[in-house]
Amino acid sequence: MGKLTTHVLDTAHGHPGANIQVELFALTGDTRRAIKTIHTNDDGRADTPLLEGAEFETGEYELVFHAGDYFAKLGVKVSEPRFVDRVVLRFGIADSASHYHVPLLVSPWAYSTYRGAERQPGTSALAQDQHIASVPCRPDPALRRLTPVPSW
């Protein structure tokens, strides 16, 4: 039986994005129908699949992550208007028997997504998606974080 899951990784701080509002919409042509609104748990995940069983149908969907509000609650100083505020991910489900995992990797300045694999029991969100940390980085004292090293 297929299902839709998501999680959020805060790449600026190196931990799961907890208590982020996420909205799910079904898209049909120009019509956008609200299905569900959740807040991520302490592990940056929804407590239950966003869709599963009879609700999980082929079609086009949209996830809206309220990332700007999350970073504001953390006290991150960013310009107004925010460079990254609400992150909208439109995607399609072609096989209702498959697991679609749509994570968000986000910072106040960038975001990325991919179709992820099902989480293995006993692994953390960061351990499951180890490729996140595979980019060579150097310490940046001015920003108090790691900065990716260009590979060109």
Please, could you describe this protein's structure?
The protein has 152 residues and is mainly beta. Helix content is 7%, strand content 39%. It contains 2 helices and 13 strands; from the N terminus they run βββββββαββββαββ. Strands 3-2-10-11 form a 4-stranded mixed β-sheet, with no helix packed on it. Strand 12 and strand 13 (145-148) form a beta hairpin. It is globular. The chain starts with a strand and ends with a strand. The model is unreliable at 125-136 (pLDDT under 50).
Strand content: 35-45%
What kind of assembly state do the chains in view correspond to?
A: single chain
| Number of helical segments with 4 or more residues | 2
- Can you count the beta strands? 13
**Biggest pleated-sheet summary:** 4 strands, mixed
Helix content: under 10%
Could you give the order of strands across the largest sheet?
Answer: 3-2-10-11
Rg, rounded, reads: 16 Å
Instruction: Output mean pLDDT.
Output: 85
Overall spatial form = globular
Order of helices and strands: EEEEEEEHEEEEHEE
* Unreliable runs: 125-136
Taking the alpha carbons of the first and last residues, their distance comes to: 44 Å
- Alpha-beta classification: mainly beta
Compact overview of the structure:
This protein is mainly β. It contains two helices and 13 strands, in the order E-E-E-E-E-E-E-H-E-E-E-E-H-E-E.
